[in-house]
Amino acid sequence: MTILYTLVARGSVVLAEYSGTQTNASTIARQILEKTPGNNDMNVSYSQDRYIFHVKRTDGLTVLCMADDVAGRRIPFAFLEDIHQRFVRTYGRAVLTAQAYGMNDEFSRVLSQQMEYYSNDPNADRINRLKSEMGQVRTVMIENIDKVLDRGDRLEVLVDKTATMQTNTLRFRKQTRRFRSTVWWRNVKLTIALILLILVIAYVVLAFVCHGLTLPTCI
User: Fold this and answer.
1) pLDDT in tens, 59-106
2) Which residue intervals define the domain Longin in the entry (predicted)?
3) DSSP string of the chain?
4) pTM (predicted TM-score)
């Protein structure tokens, strides 16, 4: 099984979780939640031995999973996105005030089903490969979790770098669009100028030809 554990939390308050095997993933996951305070959106991964903890936080809601390192990042983050959408669609604004494990009885079954799907169904990878080709997979940073959990300041730096990467990506996209727009207008202006030049040349040639044809009559 590729994805072994997952949880949904608001801040450090766990609202639902499910583990497909016996593991201490729950303990490590809570340490990650405690060391990633705030509500800034982020996608980040932390490695631990041959497992990787993938974290997605959107609008204050954190979805986390532990997966085998061979799973890569495309499938785990597609799984996290799917869980986030299902959770918000199911509970709406109740997420903002829910108590710890308030949705666990019902939603842990959803976590189990989707973990099974994304871990074993080949269709999951085909769908997510298509999404990746469409540019919907975000860049994710991976860091050894031992460095993260041993030093709180190290984790804050990683979060800051992630935010900076996202900001730089947005700035680059804006600059690229602006550059394309500038090049397009420049090409339009050059095309118009070329057309005008051709029209002027054609007018001069026609005037010269007409003058040459009418010259004998004038004599």
Assistant:
1) 899 999 999 888 888 889 999 999 999 999 999 999 999 999 999 999
2) 7-111
3) --EEEEEEEETTEEEEEEESSS-SHHHHHHHHHHTS-S---EEEEEEETTEEEEEEEETTEEEEEEEEGGGTTHHHHHHHHHHHHHHHHHHGGGGGTPPTTTTHHHHHHHHHHHHHHHHH-HHHHHHHHHHHHTT-PPP-EEEEHHHHHH-HHHHHHHHHHHHHHHHHHHHHHHHHHHHHHHHHHHHHHHHHHHHHHHHHHHHHHHHHHHHHHHHHHH-
4) 0.59
